[in-house]
Amino acid sequence: MDKIVSLCKRRGFIFPGSEIYGGLANTWDYGPLGVELKNNIERLWWKFFVHDRLDMVGLDAAILMNPKVWKASGHVDSFNDAMVDCKNCKSRHRADHLIEDAVPGVKVEGIAPEDLDKLMQENAVVCPKCGAKNFTGARRFNLLFQTNIGPVEKNAEPVYLRGELAQAMFVDFKSILETSRKKLPFGIAQSGKVFRNEITPGNFVFRTLEFDLMEFEYFIRAEEWEKCFEYWLQKMQEVSKAFCMWTMMKVNVREKRRLLSA
Ligand SMILES: [Zn+2]
């Protein structure tokens, strides 16, 4: 991984964020080549799923939404991870990751913090950093990034930076249905930045606090779900093939040009 990170930096693809001010952990800036690569992927995705189809429309919704949206979607109450701190070396960990690493095959999603503590003790989970077995109790930590609207923070109502793209597609569904003259089945697509207050980010651009998603919601009649499922399964297999081939073709064309001009 270190090799890839340093190659990306040297070639102008990805730089560590805020670097000359000492950096800000887990933020990355896409440089001149990186932004072109990222935009190419996004444009290809948009062409494939939106422009080349009659049953898909696009949306670019606000990142800030009424907090009621995130309450209704369940994110305010349950979009969370349980974290524990190692009292010995002060490192912070996700309790579910520690347990899943120690006990292969176990699934702990949705388990209460007390039960996570029990599982950690029963399985003698140790700190991956220092090897100690001295953890704080597990506690829930919401992944939504909270901010405030208005100049006086104390009195301002908290709002959230979106943690997913889907919500606006549901919230705007009626407006889109009325203005786009689409009939079921049809889809709404969106791409853009989302934000998650991850407890243990890291691993280069593979787990960050802000990242780009490309996503669509496809609306169908309930009785047609099996037909639609089969259709989209096949389509997704085509897409993944097409994306790889497209990348390889680009590389091949460039490589040929390079050889020809050499
Ligand atoms: Zn430790």
Note down, in words, how this protein is organized.
This protein is of the alpha+beta class and 262 residues long. The protein has three domains: 103 residues, no CATH class; 63 residues, Herpes Virus-1 (2-Layer Sandwich); 32 residues. It is built from nine helices and eleven strands. The strands form four sheets. The protein has a three-stranded mixed sheet with strand order 3-10-11, with helices on both faces. Strands 4-9-8 form a three-stranded antiparallel sheet. Strand 5 and strand 6 form a beta hairpin. The protein is globular. It starts with a helix and ends with a helix. The mean pLDDT is 88. It binds zinc ion (ZN). Zinc ion binds next to loops.
Task: Pick out its properties.
262 residues; alpha+beta; Herpes Virus-1; 3 domains; 3-stranded mixed β-sheet; 3-stranded antiparallel β-sheet; globular; binds zinc ion
List the ions, cofactors and other small molecules found in this model: zinc ion
Give the total of beta strands.
Answer: 11
Give the ordered list of helices and strands.
HEEHEEHHEEHHEEEHHEEH
Shape: globular
Q: How would you state the average pLDDT, rounded?
A: 88
**Structural class estimated from helices and strands:** alpha+beta
| Sheet with the most strands: spatial strand order | 3-10-11
Give the biggest sheet.
Answer: 3 strands, mixed
End-to-end Cα distance: 32 Å
Low-confidence stretches: none
What is the radius of gyration computed over CA atoms, rounded to a whole number of angstroms?
22 Å
What's the tally of helices?
9
**Beta-strand proportion:** 15-25%
**How much helical structure, as a percent, in the residues?**
40-55%
Provide the domain count.
3
